[in-house]
Fold each of these.
Amino acid sequence: QKEVEQNSGPLSVPEGAIASLNCTYSDRGSQSFFWYRQYSGKSPELIMFIYSNGDKEDGRFTAQLNKASQYVSLLIRDSQPSDSATYLCAVNSPTDSNYQLIWGAGTKLIIKP
Amino acid sequence: KAGVTQTPRYLIKTRGQQVTLSCSPISGHRSVSWYQQTPGQGLQFLFEYFSETQRNKGNFPGRFSGRQFSNSRSEMNVSTLELGDSALYLCASSLAGGGSSYNEQFFGPGTRLTVL
Protein backbone atom coordinates (compact mmCIF):
# COMPACT_ATOMS: atom_id res chain seq x y z
CA GLN A 1 0.00 0.00 0.00
CA LYS A 2 1.60 3.23 -1.15
CA GLU A 3 1.24 6.00 1.37
CA VAL A 4 1.77 9.71 1.69
CA GLU A 5 1.85 11.03 5.24
CA GLN A 6 1.23 14.55 6.43
CA ASN A 7 0.69 15.99 9.88
CA SER A 8 -2.96 16.96 9.97
CA GLY A 9 -2.33 20.03 12.13
CA PRO A 10 -3.57 22.57 12.63
CA LEU A 11 -0.23 24.27 12.31
CA SER A 12 -0.41 27.75 13.75
CA VAL A 13 2.17 30.31 12.55
CA PRO A 14 2.41 34.04 13.32
CA GLU A 15 2.00 36.44 10.41
CA GLY A 16 5.35 37.23 8.81
CA ALA A 17 7.02 34.03 10.01
CA ILE A 18 8.06 30.98 7.96
CA ALA A 19 5.54 28.14 7.72
CA SER A 20 7.08 24.71 7.20
CA LEU A 21 4.92 21.86 5.93
CA ASN A 22 6.22 18.32 5.63
CA CYS A 23 5.26 15.20 3.74
CA THR A 24 6.76 11.71 3.64
CA TYR A 25 6.08 9.01 1.08
CA SER A 26 6.57 5.27 1.00
CA ASP A 27 7.34 4.45 -2.66
CA ARG A 28 10.98 5.03 -3.61
CA GLY A 29 10.02 4.86 -7.28
CA SER A 30 7.97 8.06 -7.04
CA GLN A 31 8.86 10.51 -9.77
CA SER A 32 7.17 13.85 -9.18
CA PHE A 33 5.83 15.73 -6.22
CA PHE A 34 3.13 18.35 -5.89
CA TRP A 35 1.79 20.79 -3.34
CA TYR A 36 -1.81 21.93 -3.58
CA ARG A 37 -3.57 24.58 -1.52
CA GLN A 38 -7.23 24.16 -0.69
CA TYR A 39 -9.32 26.88 0.89
CA SER A 40 -12.37 25.82 2.84
CA GLY A 41 -15.22 24.96 0.48
CA LYS A 42 -13.04 25.30 -2.62
CA SER A 43 -11.17 22.87 -4.86
CA PRO A 44 -7.41 22.21 -4.63
CA GLU A 45 -5.11 24.58 -6.48
CA LEU A 46 -1.65 23.54 -7.67
CA ILE A 47 0.97 25.86 -6.17
CA MET A 48 4.27 24.02 -6.53
CA PHE A 49 5.76 20.95 -8.17
CA ILE A 50 9.24 19.49 -7.92
CA TYR A 51 10.90 16.65 -9.78
CA SER A 52 14.56 16.73 -8.72
CA ASN A 53 16.35 16.61 -5.40
CA GLY A 54 17.01 19.99 -3.84
CA ASP A 55 15.11 23.22 -3.57
CA LYS A 56 12.76 24.96 -5.96
CA GLU A 57 11.68 28.52 -5.27
CA ASP A 58 8.67 30.41 -6.58
CA GLY A 59 8.03 33.75 -4.92
CA ARG A 60 7.37 33.19 -1.23
CA PHE A 61 7.16 29.42 -1.71
CA THR A 62 10.03 26.94 -1.65
CA ALA A 63 9.60 23.23 -2.25
CA GLN A 64 12.32 20.90 -0.98
CA LEU A 65 12.79 17.31 -2.09
CA ASN A 66 15.00 14.65 -0.53
CA LYS A 67 14.49 11.35 -2.35
CA ALA A 68 16.98 9.47 -0.17
CA SER A 69 14.96 10.29 2.94
CA GLN A 70 11.65 10.16 1.06
CA TYR A 71 10.32 13.49 2.16
CA VAL A 72 9.17 16.65 0.51
CA SER A 73 8.49 19.93 2.24
CA LEU A 74 6.96 23.30 1.50
CA LEU A 75 8.21 26.50 3.06
CA ILE A 76 6.13 29.65 2.99
CA ARG A 77 8.10 32.78 3.80
CA ASP A 78 6.53 35.96 5.16
CA SER A 79 3.30 34.10 5.92
CA GLN A 80 0.10 36.05 5.33
CA PRO A 81 -3.41 35.45 6.72
CA SER A 82 -4.43 34.61 3.13
CA ASP A 83 -2.10 31.59 3.32
CA SER A 84 -4.45 30.02 5.86
CA ALA A 85 -5.70 26.89 4.11
CA THR A 86 -5.22 23.14 3.95
CA TYR A 87 -2.10 22.08 2.06
CA LEU A 88 -2.19 18.77 0.24
CA CYS A 89 0.90 16.83 -0.78
CA ALA A 90 0.60 14.54 -3.82
CA VAL A 91 3.18 12.05 -5.09
CA ASN A 92 3.19 10.51 -8.56
CA SER A 93 4.00 6.84 -8.07
CA PRO A 94 4.41 4.07 -10.63
CA THR A 95 1.79 1.36 -10.92
CA ASP A 96 2.09 -1.84 -12.97
CA SER A 97 1.67 -0.03 -16.25
CA ASN A 98 1.54 3.71 -15.61
CA TYR A 99 1.46 6.25 -12.77
CA GLN A 100 -1.02 7.38 -10.18
CA LEU A 101 -1.13 10.36 -7.86
CA ILE A 102 -1.14 9.33 -4.22
CA TRP A 103 -2.51 12.00 -1.89
CA GLY A 104 -1.78 12.94 1.67
CA ALA A 105 -4.65 13.87 3.96
CA GLY A 106 -3.48 17.48 4.15
CA THR A 107 -2.14 19.86 6.79
CA LYS A 108 -4.32 22.68 7.98
CA LEU A 109 -2.31 25.90 8.26
CA ILE A 110 -3.50 28.87 10.30
CA ILE A 111 -1.67 32.17 10.02
CA LYS A 112 -2.34 34.35 13.07
CA PRO A 113 -2.34 38.14 12.50
CA LYS B 1 -7.27 29.19 -21.62
CA ALA B 2 -10.47 28.10 -19.94
CA GLY B 3 -10.13 25.99 -16.84
CA VAL B 4 -11.83 22.78 -15.86
CA THR B 5 -15.60 23.05 -15.67
CA GLN B 6 -17.97 20.83 -13.75
CA THR B 7 -21.73 20.70 -13.85
CA PRO B 8 -23.88 20.89 -11.91
CA ARG B 9 -22.22 22.71 -9.02
CA TYR B 10 -24.77 21.61 -6.44
CA LEU B 11 -27.11 18.66 -6.39
CA ILE B 12 -29.61 17.29 -3.89
CA LYS B 13 -30.84 13.74 -4.32
CA THR B 14 -32.62 11.15 -2.20
CA ARG B 15 -31.44 7.67 -1.30
CA GLY B 16 -31.86 5.15 -4.06
CA GLN B 17 -31.72 7.66 -6.87
CA GLN B 18 -28.92 7.89 -9.37
CA VAL B 19 -26.88 10.89 -10.43
CA THR B 20 -24.66 11.90 -13.33
CA LEU B 21 -21.93 14.51 -12.99
CA SER B 22 -20.12 16.11 -15.90
CA CYS B 23 -16.57 17.41 -16.34
CA SER B 24 -14.99 19.29 -19.23
CA PRO B 25 -11.17 19.32 -19.06
CA ILE B 26 -8.80 22.07 -20.09
CA SER B 27 -8.52 22.26 -23.87
CA GLY B 28 -5.84 19.82 -25.05
CA HIS B 29 -5.89 17.73 -21.89
CA ARG B 30 -6.77 14.11 -22.51
CA SER B 31 -6.81 12.75 -18.98
CA VAL B 32 -9.64 13.21 -16.50
CA SER B 33 -9.50 11.92 -12.94
CA TRP B 34 -12.38 11.86 -10.48
CA TYR B 35 -12.12 12.20 -6.72
CA GLN B 36 -14.48 12.11 -3.76
CA GLN B 37 -13.79 14.40 -0.84
CA THR B 38 -15.60 14.24 2.50
CA PRO B 39 -14.76 16.17 5.67
CA GLY B 40 -11.83 14.53 7.40
CA GLN B 41 -11.30 11.93 4.64
CA GLY B 42 -9.09 13.74 2.23
CA LEU B 43 -9.15 13.09 -1.48
CA GLN B 44 -10.28 9.58 -2.40
CA PHE B 45 -9.42 8.54 -5.96
CA LEU B 46 -12.30 7.13 -7.96
CA PHE B 47 -10.92 6.58 -11.46
CA GLU B 48 -8.96 8.07 -14.32
CA TYR B 49 -9.90 8.17 -17.98
CA PHE B 50 -7.57 8.75 -20.89
CA SER B 51 -8.60 8.62 -24.54
CA GLU B 52 -12.00 7.16 -23.63
CA THR B 53 -10.43 4.30 -21.66
CA GLN B 54 -10.35 3.80 -17.91
CA ARG B 55 -6.69 3.67 -17.00
CA ASN B 56 -6.70 3.59 -13.19
CA LYS B 57 -9.38 2.75 -10.67
CA GLY B 58 -9.70 3.33 -6.94
CA ASN B 59 -11.41 1.20 -4.31
CA PHE B 60 -15.02 2.21 -4.76
CA PRO B 61 -18.02 -0.08 -5.28
CA GLY B 62 -19.42 -0.75 -8.71
CA ARG B 63 -22.19 1.80 -8.10
CA PHE B 64 -19.60 4.37 -9.13
CA SER B 65 -18.87 4.39 -12.82
CA GLY B 66 -17.60 6.76 -15.43
CA ARG B 67 -16.93 7.29 -19.06
CA GLN B 68 -15.08 9.63 -21.35
CA PHE B 69 -16.11 10.92 -24.73
CA SER B 70 -14.02 11.54 -27.82
CA ASN B 71 -13.77 15.26 -26.97
CA SER B 72 -12.26 14.28 -23.57
CA ARG B 73 -15.34 15.37 -21.63
CA SER B 74 -16.12 12.91 -18.88
CA GLU B 75 -19.14 11.87 -16.89
CA MET B 76 -19.38 10.10 -13.58
CA ASN B 77 -22.45 8.15 -12.53
CA VAL B 78 -23.49 6.98 -9.10
CA SER B 79 -26.39 4.58 -8.93
CA THR B 80 -28.53 3.67 -5.93
CA LEU B 81 -27.35 6.62 -3.88
CA GLU B 82 -26.59 6.14 -0.18
CA LEU B 83 -26.39 8.78 2.55
CA GLY B 84 -22.62 8.22 2.71
CA ASP B 85 -22.25 9.36 -0.90
CA SER B 86 -22.79 12.95 0.21
CA ALA B 87 -19.51 14.62 -0.69
CA LEU B 88 -17.68 17.06 -2.90
CA TYR B 89 -16.89 15.35 -6.20
CA LEU B 90 -13.88 16.77 -7.93
CA CYS B 91 -12.65 16.29 -11.43
CA ALA B 92 -9.02 16.93 -12.37
CA SER B 93 -7.63 17.47 -15.84
CA SER B 94 -4.13 16.56 -17.01
CA LEU B 95 -2.27 16.46 -20.31
CA ALA B 96 -1.30 12.82 -20.07
CA GLY B 97 -2.35 11.87 -16.53
CA GLY B 98 -1.07 8.52 -15.36
CA GLY B 99 0.77 7.97 -18.60
CA SER B 100 3.35 10.50 -17.53
CA SER B 101 5.86 10.58 -14.71
CA TYR B 102 4.87 14.24 -14.26
CA ASN B 103 1.05 14.08 -14.03
CA GLU B 104 0.23 17.66 -13.05
CA GLN B 105 -3.48 17.81 -12.37
CA PHE B 106 -5.75 20.84 -12.41
CA PHE B 107 -9.03 20.73 -10.58
CA GLY B 108 -12.47 21.94 -11.44
CA PRO B 109 -14.67 23.71 -8.86
CA GLY B 110 -16.39 20.46 -7.89
CA THR B 111 -19.97 19.26 -7.57
CA ARG B 112 -21.36 19.20 -4.07
CA LEU B 113 -23.75 16.28 -3.79
CA THR B 114 -26.15 15.97 -0.87
CA VAL B 115 -28.06 12.74 -0.43
CA LEU B 116 -31.16 12.94 1.80
Amino acid sequence: EVQLVESGGGLVKPGGSLRLSCVASGFTFSTYTMTWVRQAPGKGLEWLSSISNSSSYISYADSLKGRFTISRDNAKNSLYLQMNNLRAEDAAVFYCARVSYDSNGFFSSFDFWGQGTLVTVSS
Amino acid sequence: DIQMTQSPSSLSASVGDRVTITCRASQSISTYLNWYQQRPGKAPKLLIYAASTLQSGVPSRFSGSGSGTDFTLTINSLQPEDFATYYCQQSFRAPALTFGGGTKVEV
Protein backbone atom coordinates (compact mmCIF):
# COMPACT_ATOMS: atom_id res chain seq x y z
CA GLU A 1 0.00 0.00 0.00
CA VAL A 2 1.35 3.38 -1.00
CA GLN A 3 1.76 5.69 1.98
CA LEU A 4 3.06 9.22 2.23
CA VAL A 5 3.44 10.74 5.68
CA GLU A 6 4.26 14.40 6.09
CA SER A 7 5.70 16.00 9.20
CA GLY A 8 7.45 19.13 10.31
CA GLY A 9 4.57 21.56 10.30
CA GLY A 10 3.83 23.87 13.19
CA LEU A 11 3.74 27.46 14.36
CA VAL A 12 6.47 29.75 13.10
CA LYS A 13 6.95 33.51 13.33
CA PRO A 14 6.97 35.67 10.20
CA GLY A 15 10.45 35.61 8.71
CA GLY A 16 11.15 32.23 10.23
CA SER A 17 12.03 28.92 8.63
CA LEU A 18 10.62 25.43 8.64
CA ARG A 19 11.59 22.14 7.05
CA LEU A 20 8.85 19.75 6.03
CA SER A 21 9.45 16.05 5.51
CA CYS A 22 7.51 13.37 3.68
CA VAL A 23 8.34 9.71 4.20
CA ALA A 24 7.19 7.31 1.51
CA SER A 25 6.49 3.60 1.67
CA GLY A 26 4.78 0.93 -0.39
CA PHE A 27 6.46 1.80 -3.67
CA THR A 28 9.94 2.28 -5.12
CA PHE A 29 10.44 5.89 -4.11
CA SER A 30 13.63 6.35 -6.12
CA THR A 31 11.79 5.85 -9.41
CA TYR A 32 9.14 8.54 -8.98
CA THR A 33 9.00 12.28 -9.36
CA MET A 34 7.52 13.85 -6.23
CA THR A 35 5.76 17.12 -5.60
CA TRP A 36 4.53 19.52 -2.92
CA VAL A 37 1.11 21.14 -3.00
CA ARG A 38 -0.37 23.52 -0.43
CA GLN A 39 -3.85 24.60 0.55
CA ALA A 40 -4.44 27.79 2.49
CA PRO A 41 -7.35 27.68 4.95
CA GLY A 42 -10.63 27.59 3.03
CA LYS A 43 -8.83 27.95 -0.29
CA GLY A 44 -7.95 25.78 -3.26
CA LEU A 45 -4.92 23.73 -4.17
CA GLU A 46 -1.65 25.34 -5.23
CA TRP A 47 1.21 23.41 -6.80
CA LEU A 48 4.53 24.48 -5.27
CA SER A 49 7.41 22.38 -6.50
CA SER A 50 8.41 19.10 -8.10
CA ILE A 51 11.62 17.06 -8.08
CA SER A 52 12.52 14.25 -10.43
CA ASN A 53 13.51 10.83 -9.16
CA SER A 54 17.24 11.55 -9.30
CA SER A 55 16.91 15.22 -8.32
CA SER A 56 18.09 16.18 -11.80
CA TYR A 57 15.02 18.24 -12.58
CA ILE A 58 13.55 20.63 -10.06
CA SER A 59 10.85 23.20 -10.64
CA TYR A 60 9.06 25.78 -8.52
CA ALA A 61 5.97 27.91 -8.73
CA ASP A 62 6.83 31.51 -9.57
CA SER A 63 4.96 32.65 -6.45
CA LEU A 64 7.62 31.18 -4.16
CA LYS A 65 10.26 33.69 -5.31
CA GLY A 66 13.17 31.51 -4.29
CA ARG A 67 12.16 31.14 -0.64
CA PHE A 68 11.43 27.38 -0.78
CA THR A 69 13.82 24.54 -1.65
CA ILE A 70 12.75 21.02 -2.51
CA SER A 71 15.06 18.06 -2.03
CA ARG A 72 14.96 14.33 -1.54
CA ASP A 73 16.97 11.48 -0.06
CA ASN A 74 16.22 8.27 -1.90
CA ALA A 75 18.16 6.19 0.62
CA LYS A 76 15.70 7.37 3.27
CA ASN A 77 12.62 7.34 1.04
CA SER A 78 12.14 10.95 2.00
CA LEU A 79 11.10 14.20 0.38
CA TYR A 80 11.76 17.60 1.92
CA LEU A 81 10.66 21.19 1.60
CA GLN A 82 12.83 23.85 3.20
CA MET A 83 10.82 27.03 3.68
CA ASN A 84 12.57 30.30 4.52
CA ASN A 85 11.40 33.85 5.20
CA LEU A 86 7.89 32.64 5.87
CA ARG A 87 4.99 35.06 5.54
CA ALA A 88 1.47 35.04 6.91
CA GLU A 89 0.19 34.11 3.46
CA ASP A 90 2.26 30.91 3.52
CA ALA A 91 0.02 29.45 6.22
CA ALA A 92 -1.52 26.32 4.79
CA VAL A 93 -1.75 22.57 4.86
CA PHE A 94 1.18 21.22 2.89
CA TYR A 95 0.77 17.96 1.01
CA CYS A 96 3.37 15.78 -0.65
CA ALA A 97 2.21 13.70 -3.58
CA ARG A 98 3.54 11.18 -6.04
CA VAL A 99 3.64 12.12 -9.70
CA SER A 100 2.46 9.59 -12.24
CA TYR A 101 3.44 9.51 -15.89
CA ASP A 102 1.41 8.52 -18.94
CA SER A 103 2.45 5.93 -21.52
CA ASN A 104 4.33 8.63 -23.48
CA GLY A 105 6.41 9.55 -20.47
CA PHE A 106 4.67 12.84 -19.81
CA PHE A 107 3.49 14.11 -16.45
CA SER A 108 0.02 12.72 -15.88
CA SER A 109 -1.32 13.35 -12.41
CA PHE A 110 -0.70 13.30 -8.68
CA ASP A 111 -1.87 9.78 -7.96
CA PHE A 112 -1.17 9.42 -4.24
CA TRP A 113 -1.19 12.11 -1.55
CA GLY A 114 -0.14 12.31 2.05
CA GLN A 115 -2.50 13.47 4.78
CA GLY A 116 -0.85 16.89 4.98
CA THR A 117 0.95 18.91 7.62
CA LEU A 118 -0.28 22.27 8.86
CA VAL A 119 1.95 25.32 8.86
CA THR A 120 0.83 28.38 10.80
CA VAL A 121 2.70 31.66 10.44
CA SER A 122 1.97 34.12 13.20
CA SER A 123 3.75 36.33 15.70
CA ASP B 1 0.60 29.83 -16.95
CA ILE B 2 -2.51 27.96 -17.99
CA GLN B 3 -5.55 29.15 -16.05
CA MET B 4 -8.23 26.65 -15.07
CA THR B 5 -11.74 27.91 -14.38
CA GLN B 6 -14.37 25.73 -12.79
CA SER B 7 -18.09 26.31 -12.66
CA PRO B 8 -20.11 26.47 -10.63
CA SER B 9 -18.05 27.24 -7.52
CA SER B 10 -20.67 25.44 -5.48
CA LEU B 11 -23.87 23.57 -6.03
CA SER B 12 -26.61 21.99 -4.00
CA ALA B 13 -27.74 18.49 -4.78
CA SER B 14 -29.54 15.53 -3.28
CA VAL B 15 -28.70 11.87 -3.01
CA GLY B 16 -29.54 10.22 -6.32
CA ASP B 17 -29.06 13.37 -8.40
CA ARG B 18 -26.92 13.62 -11.48
CA VAL B 19 -24.30 16.33 -11.04
CA THR B 20 -22.20 18.02 -13.71
CA ILE B 21 -19.15 20.19 -13.08
CA THR B 22 -17.39 22.14 -15.80
CA CYS B 23 -13.74 23.06 -16.16
CA ARG B 24 -12.37 25.41 -18.79
CA ALA B 25 -8.71 25.89 -19.68
CA SER B 26 -7.30 29.22 -20.85
CA GLN B 27 -5.71 27.44 -23.81
CA SER B 28 -6.04 24.07 -25.46
CA ILE B 29 -4.70 21.26 -23.30
CA SER B 30 -5.80 18.30 -25.42
CA THR B 31 -6.95 15.71 -22.88
CA TYR B 32 -4.34 16.55 -20.25
CA LEU B 33 -6.96 17.07 -17.59
CA ASN B 34 -7.38 15.45 -14.19
CA TRP B 35 -10.14 15.52 -11.59
CA TYR B 36 -9.69 15.20 -7.84
CA GLN B 37 -12.13 14.80 -4.97
CA GLN B 38 -11.42 16.31 -1.56
CA ARG B 39 -13.61 15.46 1.38
CA PRO B 40 -13.56 17.85 4.37
CA GLY B 41 -10.37 17.56 6.37
CA LYS B 42 -8.90 14.99 4.00
CA ALA B 43 -6.27 14.95 1.30
CA PRO B 44 -7.30 15.19 -2.35
CA LYS B 45 -7.89 11.91 -4.14
CA LEU B 46 -7.36 11.33 -7.84
CA LEU B 47 -10.61 10.40 -9.57
CA ILE B 48 -10.00 10.76 -13.29
CA TYR B 49 -6.91 11.35 -15.38
CA ALA B 50 -6.44 12.07 -19.07
CA ALA B 51 -9.89 13.65 -19.10
CA SER B 52 -11.84 10.41 -19.06
CA THR B 53 -9.86 7.54 -17.52
CA LEU B 54 -11.12 6.41 -14.15
CA GLN B 55 -8.43 5.89 -11.54
CA SER B 56 -8.35 2.38 -10.11
CA GLY B 57 -10.97 1.86 -7.42
CA VAL B 58 -13.09 4.87 -8.34
CA PRO B 59 -16.79 4.03 -8.71
CA SER B 60 -18.20 3.96 -12.22
CA ARG B 61 -20.80 6.63 -11.37
CA PHE B 62 -17.97 9.12 -11.94
CA SER B 63 -17.14 9.99 -15.52
CA GLY B 64 -15.17 12.64 -17.32
CA SER B 65 -15.28 14.02 -20.82
CA GLY B 66 -13.94 16.80 -22.98
CA SER B 67 -10.86 17.87 -24.87
CA GLY B 68 -9.21 21.09 -25.91
CA THR B 69 -10.46 23.73 -23.49
CA ASP B 70 -13.76 22.42 -22.15
CA PHE B 71 -14.17 19.50 -19.78
CA THR B 72 -16.89 17.95 -17.68
CA LEU B 73 -17.04 15.79 -14.58
CA THR B 74 -20.32 13.95 -14.16
CA ILE B 75 -21.49 12.09 -11.09
CA ASN B 76 -24.44 9.83 -11.73
CA SER B 77 -26.69 8.96 -8.82
CA LEU B 78 -24.94 11.06 -6.19
CA GLN B 79 -24.11 9.15 -3.01
CA PRO B 80 -23.71 10.57 0.52
CA GLU B 81 -19.93 10.10 0.36
CA ASP B 82 -19.77 12.21 -2.82
CA PHE B 83 -20.50 15.45 -1.01
CA ALA B 84 -17.08 17.02 -1.30
CA THR B 85 -15.08 19.58 -3.25
CA TYR B 86 -13.89 18.69 -6.72
CA TYR B 87 -10.85 20.16 -8.46
CA CYS B 88 -9.71 19.96 -12.04
CA GLN B 89 -6.00 20.12 -12.92
CA GLN B 90 -4.18 20.54 -16.19
CA SER B 91 -1.15 18.38 -16.89
CA PHE B 92 -0.39 19.88 -20.31
CA ARG B 93 2.07 22.46 -19.08
CA ALA B 94 4.19 20.33 -16.76
CA PRO B 95 5.61 20.53 -14.23
CA ALA B 96 3.35 23.41 -13.13
CA LEU B 97 0.21 21.33 -12.97
CA THR B 98 -2.24 24.09 -12.07
CA PHE B 99 -5.61 23.50 -10.46
CA GLY B 100 -9.03 24.99 -10.91
CA GLY B 101 -10.62 26.86 -8.05
CA GLY B 102 -12.80 23.96 -6.96
CA THR B 103 -16.49 23.11 -6.93
CA LYS B 104 -18.15 22.30 -3.65
CA VAL B 105 -20.99 19.81 -3.89
CA GLU B 106 -23.24 20.16 -0.87
CA VAL B 107 -26.63 19.05 0.31
